[in-house]
Design a protein that fits this description.
Layout lengths: L14 E3 L2 H13 L4 E4 L6 E4 L1 E5 L4 E5 L7 H5 L4 E7 L2 E7 L4 E5 L2 E7 L4 E5 L6 E2 L6 E6 L7 E8 L3 E7 L11 E9 L2 E15 L4 E9 L3 H21 L1
């Protein structure tokens, strides 16, 4: 059954890309758009953030930026297997690295060289209507949790029934960590403030604007908050259709 929040094309099942051309093209998307990557080790609970900073197709190598926090480097030195997960335009791009990495430098900065993956998981997961807000309609938000010493205030850029995109003034790369669940995301909707836990999925900093952009997925949301968000998304969607 159709709902107001479902696009005409729903989420697709995961695909496993195996050809060199497909793998290279999707990794290049992550590199060119500076999409943050989540690095996880199967035997470790902590997650780390990195970026894909170089791809050498001829030599079959890629380079990852220094891990954030950087104490994850000791797991790489131990030769531990790790997983890489990134998102580009609602698509999850993920692979496993079972080979030992070589620590090196690229343009004077520390990096980690590994072999190009033989397989990449490609998963189009976005199926919820994402309601973009106009510049004059941006809503105030506040992010807080046990991992933050002080709450962070920002603005809501867009929202769907399952997640949202935020922006904050300044560089918050040292305070926020991809993969972390923050217990209190408060959003001031026109008809009241809702609060829910949210998992940080993407984080990027635009130095020209001095803005940090974050993508979050709502986490264990209660029914009241869910209904309020769906009501707001439907309202924005209806107004957009009227303008069209």
């Amino acid at each position: 059954m159709s709902t107001p929040f479902t696009e005409d094309t729903g989420p697709q099942p995961p695909k496993v890309l195996k050809t060199a051309a497909e793998i290279f093209a999707n990794l290049r998307h992550l590199q060119d758009h500076h999409d943050p990557l989540i690095i996880s080790f199967p035997e470790r609970s902590q997650r780390f953030q990195s970026y894909l900073v170089a791809i050498n197709r001829e030599r079959g190598l890629l380079a990852l930026d220094e891990l954030i926090p950087n104490d994850g480097e000791r797991f790489l030195k131990n030769g531990e297997t790790f997983n890489v997960e990134g998102f580009h335009d609602g698509v999850r791009i993920a692979w496993e690295c079972q080979q030992s990495v070589q620590i090196g430098e690229l343009d004077g900065a520390r990096c980690y060289w590994s072999g190009l993956p033989n397989e990449v998981i490609y998963h189009q997961r976005r199926n919820a209507f994402r309601a973009p807000l106009k510049q004059g309609q941006l809503l105030s938000i506040e992010l807080a949790g046990d991992k933050l010493s002080n709450s962070i205030k920002g603005q809501l850029l867009d929202i769907s029934a399952t997640g949202c995109r935020l922006r904050f003034q300044g560089n918050l790369g040292s305070r926020l960590q991809a993969g972390q669940v923050y217990e209190r995301l408060s959003v001031k909707l026109p008809f009241g403030t809702i609060s829910t836990a949210a998992e940080l999925r993407h984080l990027s900093y635009e130095d020209k604007l001095d803005m940090t952009y974050a993508g979050l997925r709502f986490y264990r949301m209660d029914g009241l908050a869910q209904r309020s968000i769906e009501r707001f998304v439907y309202q924005v969607q209806r107004e957009a259709r009227q303008l069209e």
